[in-house]
Design a protein that fits this description.
By secondary structure, the protein is of the alpha/beta class. The protein contains 14 helices and nine strands.
């Protein structure tokens, strides 16, 4: 037995994962070079070797649930990871000059893909499954939850930082009678978002958050803070504070991590979300200090597991319609790996999903939390 295989088997011991076993989480290795690749490149090698067809698991989400729940990701340290972190320390990966890269690389990949995968409302963040039994209802419930947490009233002016295809803009304007200004760094999102919000008091702009101006009764940001970067958290919060009226509320909806880091997983950074990272509680707390009062902090991370599994079911179902050209076998395996590894991350509780309500001076009489 090659020593690399023995090392990997020892790492997996008592994790619920067996090499070439028969359970849903077990890994079937098809290329023996897999072991050396993973040990030398860590998570990058694990993801790339999957896309290359070197290994399979009957249920990838189960594999990642066991891998992350047993913290095996912490047991393989590589030179590549050191340079990945070093780059994030030396360079500002969330700088204004790089702001539009994520839009071009990820969000502009295809409106057709997102329309089919995300469901009727095209919401690219977690749904709220408290009462829902399907994706569309979970997303509608999430949007309504946000509106209720912000105590929206007709005539208010709302800013949506990172508005995507305008799902919140459309919902809030049509259901609550408010005016919404949305910003995004994706040209495809602007084009389709304007069509989806036609006839409503909604304006969608191609704009970096650092160029925002004006005053708003409420501010919301759903699934955009992950692209800001730790070097820019304070600036982001200063802009939000400056843009919010004194009696206003700001709701931040973001994926979060259990540990303060300076970069994201190397495979995700290279193939899915370049220049992104997950904030920690400490990093968010430091960024809002002396700017905002934290009124409410809601964690419903397991709902993201359900959302990702629903997205993958849609992706798998519509794949025959997409397949061809740039949508080749590697694209399918890349996105399968992205969606299901992420699902395993939330189910294992390695990743969190937070909705944080902030005020500038504290809500007189106290803020009433809504769930």
């Amino acid at each position: 037995m090659p020593k690399e295989k023995q090392i990997v088997e020892n790492l997996l011991h008592n994790s619920g994962i067996t090499i070439n076993g028969d359970s849903l989480a077990d890994i079937k290795v098809k290329n023996d070079n897999f072991y050396k690749r993973v040990l030398s490149q860590g998570s990058l090698g694990l993801g790339e070797s999957y896309v290359d067809g070197w290994w399979e698991a009957e249920k990838l989400d189960e594999f990642f649930y066991h891998l992350l729940r047993h913290e095996l990701d912490k047991k393989v340290k590589t030179k590549f990871l050191f340079f990945h972190i070093f780059k994030a320390i030396i360079f500002n990966l969330g700088s204004k000059s790089k702001a539009f890269k994520i839009g071009e690389y990820h969000y502009d990949v295809s409106n057709k893909l997102y329309e089919k995968m995300l469901g009727r409302r095209m919401v690219y963040s977690s749904g709220y499954w408290k009462e829902a039994d399907n994706l569309d209802q979970a997303q509608a419930d999430k949007l309504d939850l946000v509106c209720k947490k912000l105590y929206l009233k007709p005539g208010m002016k709302i800013l949506d930082i990172g508005c995507g295809w305008g799902s919140f803009c459309k919902y809030a304007a049509s259901k609550y009678g408010v005016k919404v200004v949305g910003t995004t760094v994706s040209r495809e999102q602007v084009e389709l978002g304007k069509k989806l919000c036609a006839g409503l008091d909604v304006e969608i702009k191609l704009q970096d958050y650092r160029d925002i101006s004006g005053k708003y009764d409420r501010i919301v940001s759903l699934g955009m803070f992950e692209h800001v970067g730790y070097k820019n958290y304070r600036q982001f919060m200063e802009i939000a504070e400056k843009s919010l009226k004194d009696d206003g509320l700001f709701l931040l909806h973001t994926i979060g991590g259990n540990k303060s880091v300076k970069t994201i997983d190397p495979w995700i950074a290279r193939y899915i979300f370049p220049n992104s990272m997950l904030p920690s509680i400490r990093q968010i707390a430091e960024s809002i200090e002396n700017l905002f009062v934290m009124e409410d902090w809601h964690n419903f991370s397991v709902d993201y597991y359900k959302t990702l599994m629903a997205w993958f079911a849609n992706f798998k179902k519509i794949w025959p319609e997409l397949e061809g050209g740039k949508y080749d076998k590697k694209f399918y395996r890349t996105w399968k790996y992205y969606l299901l590894s992420s699902a395993g991350g939330f189910r294992s509780r390695k990743n969190q999903l937070w909705q944080i309500v902030l005020s500038k001076r504290g809500v007189l009489g106290g803020y009433k939390s809504i769930r």
